[in-house]
């Protein structure tokens, strides 16, 4: 068993927002955590990773390879996140540093795990960029995050998470901000990479159709509690809880009207930034108008480098 969560509770301001959740992730299993907005999916993931916001308190048990990791000191948790457990979040913009090239950032992830020179790390970054099917890896590593499309940035975030060769990947709505066609590509890539490496996956989503594409098992949450869990096939065939039945109805509606799954319910803002037209074009054409693809979202640093020629930071 790689991960075992038992009776996990997270309290914020005296309110139990995660209220006694238990589930297991066997070696090599891909488990989807699913539920409506506010059901406690992200806080469960953050509690496992030791990344809860200030004021939140977790109790219960999180065992990773038979070792209790809930309440470990920050230093031990940081090492665990570098070595064993990787993570990808919904909006890659927040995971990426706007001032550093993507090659440098993927390379730094390699260097967390292995002692290699900067030059070797960059060489490895090219390989990792190719592994997540970023086009023209040699060139794309010298680009800055804002010069990439939303789909490309999410691939960079996945490359960074996988560069450490984790045994477990926790991905919280990694494709929700993406256009549906781009989403499908990122999902199948994620599934293949996890499968090929024999890793385990905890995949968070509010969309049962998305979950069915990646996960082998599902844990359905409602208001911080598990209402149903089991093999994905079983859940699709005979959903027993009203929540799962509703999720299945939504997923079926999406099958007939894929455009309805976008923009997403839980991050309309990010969806608006990475609009379908922008991502669809530039996800496929790295040498195309990548900067224009993002012209609704200026880079956070006003004096940030405008193109790959001006790299000063490595
Ligand atoms: N920092 C916080 N302070 C106070 N309450 C919070 C905080 N973060 C989350 N909550 C509350 O905890 C509950 C669970 O939040 P969580 O983010 O885990 O939901 P979620 O299932 O991930 O939802 P979504 O699908 O919208 O991402 C919600 O009711 C939310 O309002
Ligand atoms: Mg969430």
Summarize the entry for a quick read.
This protein is an alpha/beta fold and 314 residues long. Helices cover 42% and strands 21% of the residues.
Overall description:
With 314 residues, the protein is of the alpha/beta class. Helices cover 42% and strands 21% of the residues. The chain has 14 helices and 10 strands. The strands form 2 sheets. The protein has a 6-stranded mixed sheet with strand order 6-7-8-3-9-10, with helices on both faces. A 4-stranded antiparallel sheet has the order 2-1-4-5. A hairpin with a 2-residue loop joins strand 1 and strand 2 (15-25). Helix 4 (102-113) packs across helix 5 (118-131) and helix 4 packs parallel to helix 7 (150-163). Mean pLDDT is 83; it is low at 262-314. Adenosine-5'-triphosphate binds next to helix 1. Residues 41-42, 172 line the site of magnesium ion (MG).
Strand portion? 15-25%
Element pattern in H and E: EEEHEEHEHHHHHEHEHEEHHHHH
Q: What would you report as the Rg, rounded to the nearest angstrom?
A: 19 Å
Give the count of helical stretches: 14
Low-confidence stretches: 262-314
Total strands: 10
What class, by secondary structure content?
alpha/beta
Based on CA inertia axes, which overall geometry fits? globular
Distance between the termini: 41 Å
Bound molecules: adenosine-5'-triphosphate, magnesium ion
Please outline the major beta sheet: 6 strands, mixed
Main sheet strand line-up: 6-7-8-3-9-10
Mean pLDDT: 83
